[in-house]
Structure prediction request, 200 residues.
Amino acid sequence: MNLQQHANRDDFKVWLSEQEVPKLLEAAPNASAKIAFGLGAYCGLRSFEIAKVQPSDVHDSDAGRVLRIVGKGDKYREVPVGQDIATQIQTAADFRDEPDTYPIVQSQSSSRTVPTRTLRRWLAAAARSVAKETGDNAWNYLSMHDLRRTWATNLAAAGVDPMILLSWGGWSDIETFRQAYRGEYAPSAHRREREKVDWL
Prediction:
């Protein structure tokens, strides 16, 4: 986990490592929360996008399995979705008596679109649980947007073509991406650079 203080706030931006994301998913308070966290950390969706995802949004394309999203500014984009998340979405849909056009992330009491404050509440509960388990209070700074930040930064650190990354994330220019996500904060990038120096 890496942290950077926000410019105008007292809290921090957080970047999870690839090993920390599964810890968060395991601590999810329910199945919908686990899917929501996965859509943030493994697909880079914003909170309001997570709340709108329907099983019918998952498609197989020539480029592989994708989520078709209408995001910020009503911009359409296709985001790669891994087999685990796609399976979780399909499994949840199979256990419901609702059409594939209903939101997949739901509160326990209703099939309506889950409010983003519920997503934040679920994440805070999971983060507290992992903080207690690991003894690392930095987990308590984790936000839903940090999951998107983690996704983008881990992809950049893995060498994904920046123009493809912009397309997947729905950013219009590289400078916006760099200012908000700063790929050099990937824990894997820090580890790789430290390994270049014998005494670190």
Q: What stands out?
A: The radius of gyration is 17 Å.
